[in-house]
Amino acid sequence: MAVSNFVYNTFFKKSSSAALTVVVGAILFERGVDAFTDSVFEYYNRGRLWKNIAHLYPPKPED
Amino acid sequence: MAPVLGQFGRTVFSNFAKGYSHPKVYLSNTSSSFREMSQGKKILLTTGCFLTTAAAGLAYSLNESVKAIDLNLHPPKYPWPHKGHRHEPELLAALPFRKLELDKAIGLYDAASLRRGWQVYKQVCAACHSLRFVAYRQFVDLFMTEDEAKAEAAEATITDGPDANGKMFQRPGKLADYIPSPYPNEEAARVANGGAYPPDLSNITVGREGDEDYVFSLLRGYADPPAGVELGENQHFNLYMQGNAIAMAQALYNGLIEYDDGTPATASQMAKDVTHFLAYCATPELESWKKYLFKWTIISTCLFGLAWYYKRHLWASLVYRRVAYRDVNKKH
């Protein structure tokens, strides 16, 4: 109860702080979802991506 | 006879009156009266429904099997990294590097295969087939470095212009250039290929029934024509081509090119790699689509949870109310 009271009083009680919470929360949430998605895709597709195999193709010496 | 009829009529009428003299109150105003039917009618109706469904299923399957008799060999399904395995457990068992069958949902293109496929296209297919809607810049960090892509582009000769004098001029390619076509127009391509037009390969895997599986099967589908099959001039027998006569000769043979990563260049390896590359050319946005779907799933789940909580919150006062009735005649 103490936690929810603290959260309510700090983040949602005033309209201004609630609006700020929504905006900041949306940004953080989106960045989190993006990072999570990328990590899942990179983990599942490990070995397939260019960043995993780029070292196998060293740049050709200029001739 | 008359007494019998009279008895019958009285029975029917009394049943009729019985049925309608006590109107029932239904909670829902649906027209379904299945509950009210007699046992025989219920059985009849249920059997009829089953039989209708079975007949529809039979007709559908017969129709499907009729389609199978046209002389068109359908390609088998192959386990592409970006499309997934399709109900082929023995194939899945042979692929130890993926434990989960999630390729269809989150599988991306295989960069090494794309790189080999580009080599096959450049050294074999590009002699006749254009790739008009693909640019060199797309290859950067997908299966080659930026320097390599620039070098690839510089090898090509691009017609640019007009210059200050109104003339078109030739220049080496840049990253933003699209891959030049082997022929300036369709007529030139037809003349050079005995009347047959080599299609542009930019969208070939989505432009043919069977997608990647069809293109791969077509490249591996050359055979000697069976007895009795007449082929025209400049035509070759292919199992997967519609009508079995294709103008393109078999292009891929074992050891035709040399891969820069040392993979043995067998004909099926080259067919697989170039098909994978062409699949990328047709749907380069597949990777972002899959990521969007993944994100959409996460966000929708969260929004659903919020909506569910908000609905409970709004209706709580009604859902959890208790109504007590007081008998006004009773003295308290």
TrEMBL record, chain A:
<comment type="similarity">
    <text>Belongs to the UQCR10/QCR9 family.</text>
</comment>
<keyword id="KW-0679">Respiratory chain</keyword>
<dbReference type="Pfam" id="PF05365">
    <property type="entry name" value="UCR_UQCRX_QCR9"/>
</dbReference>
<comment type="subunit">
    <text>Component of the ubiquinol-cytochrome c oxidoreductase (cytochrome b-c1 complex, complex III, CIII), a multisubunit enzyme composed of 3 respiratory subunits cytochrome b, cytochrome c1 and Rieske protein, 2 core protein subunits, and additional low-molecular weight protein subunits.</text>
</comment>
<keyword id="KW-0999">Mitochondrion inner membrane</keyword>
<keyword id="KW-0472">Membrane</keyword>
<protein>
    <recommendedName>
        <fullName>Complex III subunit 9</fullName>
    </recommendedName>
</protein>
<keyword id="KW-0813">Transport</keyword>
<dbReference type="GO" id="GO:0005743">
    <property type="term" value="C:mitochondrial inner membrane"/>
</dbReference>
<keyword id="KW-0496">Mitochondrion</keyword>
<dbReference type="InterPro" id="IPR036656">
    <property type="entry name" value="QCR9_sf"/>
</dbReference>
<keyword id="KW-0812">Transmembrane</keyword>
<keyword id="KW-0249">Electron transport</keyword>
<dbReference type="GO" id="GO:0045275">
    <property type="term" value="C:respiratory chain complex III"/>
</dbReference>
<keyword id="KW-1133">Transmembrane helix</keyword>
<dbReference type="InterPro" id="IPR008027">
    <property type="entry name" value="QCR9"/>
</dbReference>
<dbReference type="GO" id="GO:0006122">
    <property type="term" value="P:mitochondrial electron transport, ubiquinol to cytochrome c"/>
</dbReference>
<comment type="function">
    <text>Component of the ubiquinol-cytochrome c oxidoreductase, a multisubunit transmembrane complex that is part of the mitochondrial electron transport chain which drives oxidative phosphorylation. The complex plays an important role in the uptake of multiple carbon sources present in different host niches.</text>
</comment>
UniProtKB/TrEMBL annotation, chain B:
<feature type="binding site" description="covalent">
    <location>
        <position position="129"/>
    </location>
    <ligand>
        <name>heme c</name>
    </ligand>
</feature>
<keyword id="KW-0249">Electron transport</keyword>
<keyword id="KW-0812">Transmembrane</keyword>
<dbReference type="GO" id="GO:0046872">
    <property type="term" value="F:metal ion binding"/>
</dbReference>
<dbReference type="GO" id="GO:0005743">
    <property type="term" value="C:mitochondrial inner membrane"/>
</dbReference>
<keyword id="KW-0479">Metal-binding</keyword>
<dbReference type="Pfam" id="PF02167">
    <property type="entry name" value="Cytochrom_C1"/>
</dbReference>
<keyword id="KW-0408">Iron</keyword>
<comment type="similarity">
    <text>Belongs to the cytochrome c family.</text>
</comment>
<feature type="binding site" description="covalent">
    <location>
        <position position="125"/>
    </location>
    <ligand>
        <name>heme c</name>
    </ligand>
</feature>
<keyword id="KW-0999">Mitochondrion inner membrane</keyword>
<keyword id="KW-0349">Heme</keyword>
<keyword id="KW-0472">Membrane</keyword>
<dbReference type="InterPro" id="IPR036909">
    <property type="entry name" value="Cyt_c-like_dom_sf"/>
</dbReference>
<feature type="binding site" description="covalent">
    <location>
        <position position="128"/>
    </location>
    <ligand>
        <name>heme c</name>
    </ligand>
</feature>
<comment type="function">
    <text>Electron carrier protein. The oxidized form of the cytochrome c heme group can accept an electron from the heme group of the cytochrome c1 subunit of cytochrome reductase. Cytochrome c then transfers this electron to the cytochrome oxidase complex, the final protein carrier in the mitochondrial electron-transport chain.</text>
</comment>
<feature type="binding site" description="covalent">
    <location>
        <position position="248"/>
    </location>
    <ligand>
        <name>heme c</name>
    </ligand>
</feature>
<keyword id="KW-0679">Respiratory chain</keyword>
<keyword id="KW-0496">Mitochondrion</keyword>
<keyword id="KW-0813">Transport</keyword>
<dbReference type="GO" id="GO:0006122">
    <property type="term" value="P:mitochondrial electron transport, ubiquinol to cytochrome c"/>
</dbReference>
<dbReference type="GO" id="GO:0020037">
    <property type="term" value="F:heme binding"/>
</dbReference>
